[in-house]
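Review this chain:
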Amino acid sequence: MHFDDAEQVINKRMGASSIHNEANVILVEVKSSKVQDEAITSMKNLLPGDYLVASSYACYRPAAKVMGINEDAAWLLTIIIGICTVILALKSQLSSVLERRRDIGILKAIGWTDGNVVSQILAESVLQAMIGGILGCLVAVAILLFVPIEMLSGIEAGVHIIISPWVLVLGFALAFLGGIIAGSFPAFIAARQRPADALRSI
C-alpha cells in the first residue's frame, strides 16, 4: 500500500488525532540474503538519525554465506566441465585429422595452401560447436519452461523463472570459442604436415 493511502486509512479511525508523515515501522523485503546489509545501510541513509533501529532475521548472514559457497562451487564446476568439454572436442578433432591425413595430403599436393587446410578444419570445428551451442540453449530453455521448478531446485511453486537473453548469448559465445580452441591445434598440425609424408604414412 502506498504511504499516503495508508495514512488515509489510519486517519479515518484516529478521529481528531490524525497523523501526517509519521511511521513507526517500515518493513523491507529483499530479493536475496546477500543484499541484506546493503538494504539496511540504504534504510539508514534514507532515514538518518539515532531513532532508527534496524532489525532483521539473524539467519541471513549464514544464509548469504551458504549461497556464496554454492555459487562459487557452481562456477567452479562449470569451468571444469567447460575445460573437459574443450579437451574432449580437441581430441575428437585431432583424431579426425589423423584419420584424414591422406586426404589432406592429396589436397595439399594438388594445390591447397596451409591457410586452406586450417580454414577447412576450423570451419568444421566451429560449425559443430555452433550446432551444439544452439541445441544446448534450446534444451536449457525447454527444461526451464516445461519442467516444474520444484523438481529442479526444490523452490516452492509459484516462482517465475526469468530467462535472460544475455545468458543464452554467453552460452552460445562460449560454445563458439570452445569450437575455435578445439579446432586450432589439429588445424595447425594438419597444415604443417608435408604431402609426401602424409601419403607415405598410410
